[in-house]
Design brief:
- By secondary structure, the chain is mainly alpha-helical.
- The protein contains 3 helices and no strands.
- The chain folds into 2 domains: about 5-55; about 60-115, no CATH class.
- The protein has helices at about 15-55, 60-75, 80-110.
Length: about 120
Amino acid sequence: MSELPNLPARPSRREMRKAIVRLRLELQRQQLQQEAQLLLQPLRQARDLGQSVRQQLHGFSPLWAAGGGAATLALLLGRKRRWLRLLRLGLILAPLLFKLRQQTTATTKAESDPPS
């Protein structure tokens, strides 16, 4: 409703007041919509970040499940030293596993694509 209200050539005072009220309501609606978009922007960014992380780690879900299970067991059953040792090992092995996974997907794609 971003148009000006239709008024006759000589509007009465009542019609003018109604038109002004409608314009004010439309302005407030647009302001609220703009403010809502500004407030929701960080939430959209967080959602997009979560989706991109999920897409990147899609092939690693068994690995992450095993790591999460091991971490949970370490927290529930172990002492601090065991948890720290497991965490260190995971931090050391994670980049290597990522690189290995990327290499295997690259070779699989190269083998499946016939040469032109």
